[in-house]
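Late entry, evening session. Most of the bench is empty. Finally got around to the prediction I had been postponing all week. Sequence below, unchanged from the version circulated by S.P.
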Amino acid sequence: MGRKNWLFFGEAEAGERSAVVYSIIESCRGRGIDPYAYPRDVLTRLPSMMNWQILDIMPEAWGTTQRSMVAKAA
């Protein structure tokens, strides 16, 4: 079913890019993270970050940080 739905996805690289986006969204869902809030926050912070800070914005670390911020605010 999926193969027929995604047969005409656009250009050749579009399928690979969409797979990356789907992987990020499912990774967020699997960790109980809002799949809209995560990319919004990461994409706004990314331009000012250094490459050694990448581990701080991985879904698992990001979710832990967000949960601790919510706990401190409560």
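Two things to note before I forget:
The mean pLDDT is 85.
The chain has four helices and no strands.
Will write this up properly tomorrow.
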